[in-house]
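User: Structure please.
Assistant: Input sequence and predicted structure:
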Amino acid sequence: MDKYYSYADFLKAMGRNQTVSEAEKLLKDIYMDLFLNHVHREQRKDRLLTLIDGALDQKDVGSFVVYTNELRQLQHESV
C-alpha cells in the first residue's frame, strides 16, 4: 500500500506529449493510495482502542502496555 510517488514523476507525466490522462491516472493513483492508507490507519486505531479498553477491563497491564505502544507508534507514523 505504501507506494512512493514523487513530484518529479507527476511532472514527467504532465510534460509528456501524450494525453493528459496519463497524468490524471497518476494523480488518481496517488489519491487512492492516500485514501486507503487513511482508512487502514483509522481501522487499526479503532481496533487498538477496543483492545486497550478490553485490557483495562481485564486489568491486564501487559496487554495494555503493548496496545498503547502500538497506538503511540501508529500516531507517530501518521504525523
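The chain has a mean pLDDT of 85.
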